[in-house]
Amino acid sequence: MTRNGVKAIVSEPSWCTADHPQGIFLADVSHRGDPIEVLLQDGTVLASAELAQWPYNVRNRLPIMSVVLDTEGTEYDDEQLQELASKLLTFAALVVPQLRVLLAEAVEEASR
Ligand SMILES: [Zn+2]
């Protein structure tokens, strides 16, 4: 049951692992996948990402990939800036293609 008293049955995508509370507006229904953490060899987190979708919201009806880059911070000295550049190259070359595949699969599933 939605907040405005409408009973709605929402189809669940295969990738969603979120709990869905009752009593919210239909536009606020969101699907979320498990977080994907990209770790560097030293164990630090390069980025985290997750699939998300607000199927009844005007902005994000189709799934999107939510990405947080370099979760350690936003302040860098020169050496850290060089490390950041290396991380971003790795992210662009290795991670983005994988995220695009996951997103394309989710969008395809939502379009069926
Ligand atoms: Zn869901």
Would you write up a description of this structure?
With 112 residues, this protein is of the alpha+beta class. It has a domain at 35-110. Helices cover 29% and strands 19% of the residues. Strands 1, 2, 3 and 4 form a 4-stranded antiparallel beta sheet that branches. The longest helix has 33 residues, at 78-110. The chain starts with 30 loop residues before the first strand and ends with a helix. Bound molecules: zinc ion. Zinc ion binds at residues 12, 16, 18, 20, 31.
What does the secondary structure layout of this molecule look like, with pairings?
Blueprint: E1 31-32, E2 36-39, E3 45-53, E4 64-69, H1 78-110
Antiparallel strand pairs: 1-3, 2-3, 3-4
The structure holds zinc ion.
Q: Give every kind of bound small molecule, once each.
A: zinc ion
Q: What is the count of helical runs? A: 1
Indicate the percent of residues in helices: 25-40%
Main structural class: alpha+beta
Computed CA radius of gyration, to the nearest angstrom: 17 Å
- The poorly predicted ranges are none
The number of E-state strands comes to: 4
Secondary-structure element series: EEEEH
What portion of the residues fall into strands of 2 or more residues? 15-25%
Distance between the termini: 25 Å
Instruction: Please tell me the overall pLDDT.
Output: 87
Largest sheet: 4 strands, antiparallel
Summarize the structure.
This protein has 112 residues and is of the alpha+beta class. It is 29% helix and 19% strand.
